[in-house]
Amino acid sequence: MQRTTRFGLVILFLLLVPARFRAQEDWFRTGINLGVEKIRLAAAEFQPRSIDPPLVSATEVFNRVLWNDLETAGIFEMVNRSFYPLEIPTEPSEVRFEPWNEPPVETQMLVFGKTETIQGNLVVTARLFDIRSPLKPTVLAKRYVSTVDEEAARRVAHRFADEIILNLGGGLPGINSTQITFVSKRNGHEEIMVMDFDGHNQYPVTNYKSLSLTPRWSHDNTKVAFTSYSTGTPQIFIHSLETNRRIPFPTYRGLNTTPAWSPEGKRIAFCSSMSGDPEIYVSDVNGFNLQRLTFSRGVDISPSWNPRTGNEIAFISDRIGPPQLYIMDANGSNVRRVITMGGSATTPAWSPNGQFIAFAWMVGETGHYDIYLLEIASARVVQLTHDAGRNERPSWAPDGRHIVFESNRSGLNQVWIMLSDGSNPKRLTSIGRNWGPAWSNQRR
To answer: If you ran DSSP here, which 8-state letter would residue 4 be given?
Structure first.
């Protein structure tokens, strides 16, 4: 009783403290690897070595995408280009350290380089200099070769941005080559779609002309599991992105929904009402070795594995009233409720490091859902979205620094991303209604 009381007081305090202070608590920012102080970084525009139109166009795309990737990373303070010296370097010998060190630039790191066409290929020479170390400034020196087109230029920019983030961001890989799957009704039916992490290259995965929901990536990003109503009752479907075909999975009685892949990719947890009540089950990815994990009246739904250990599953249950957040061991034992302040909770998502759970929560005073974060070890809670419509269905980027979610703040439901302290929200979709996003795993 004493522990529950302390837990409730901690949450009540956090709900009353102004959001701008809660979202910036050092324990929280450090725990999600955002850090307290950002690296001041200047990204000079790469210069094409000729006026050949395809090269100029590809270079413009490269510069735009590279800047967006670095700005979105959450670990840099990007120096405004209007402050840059007039002489923009393309070669190491052209870097004059004093103007980049002095006000108003005062940068710590400088990105620069050139593009050219060699034997019909796009060649990008890219460098990262530590301006504070003029004697040994080189942090990165890369050369990329690809075709001369805008899509290739985008991929090269993503690769170089990931290299920069890996080197300066504490060893965590960048997310610029990851993807997001989501539900879209832009063509009259709810279908599963996929897009790049920045909203580019949106394309459909399914074409059932029915209701498709709750997509989730396999551990190797080659498959998407989701809920399909194409057979009349909701069933778990698995779609291969390699063959563009459906992979067999058993059809069960009743409602079957909210699939979630285990971290090692060998099992799937899901909700099924095959026994009467909606309960959490787990099976092999082919449907074998089916095991029921929950045994309670009411609805148990939306399982989410601890990706760090694979030994725990978070889920939502209304077994004692409104839907609340629970955790259990992966075999169904040791069930415990982790939020005790009431309200209504939905769609938990476990962070990559296993320390946090993001979830949507409607507290009585607000009247709508917002994204919250629970630190599991301390039971501390932080509200991430505020006064911006209804916000639900969070999903973590593999770097733990970003969260994708759905929000109707712009009118219709759309897919947004934000840093995992709630800052820097960006909308990714705009055509029709789009919701239910899930971030892919890190590419191997």
So the answer is: H
Distance CA 405, CA 416 (A): 5
- For the segment 146-170, the average pLDDT, to the nearest whole number, is 96
SS3 label, residue 402: strand
Would you say 392 and 405 are in contact if contact means Cβ atoms under 8 Å apart? yes
Phi and psi torsions of 143, nearest 5°:
-130, 125
Residues near 67 by beta carbon (within 8 Å), at least 6 away in sequence: 43, 78
Q: Measured between alpha carbons, how far apart are the two ends of the chain, in Å? A: 46
Decide if 23 contacts 422 (C-beta within 8 A): yes
Q: Give pLDDT, residue 32.
A: 53
Q: Which residues pair with 216 in a beta bridge?
A: 225
Q: How far is CA 118 from CA 123, 125, 145, 238, in A?
A: 7, 12, 9, 43
Q: Look at 61 and 32; give whichever has higher pLDDT.
A: 61
**Residue type for position 285:** V
Measure the CA–CA gap between 108 and 308, rounded to whole angstroms: 34
Look up the pTM and report it: 0.91
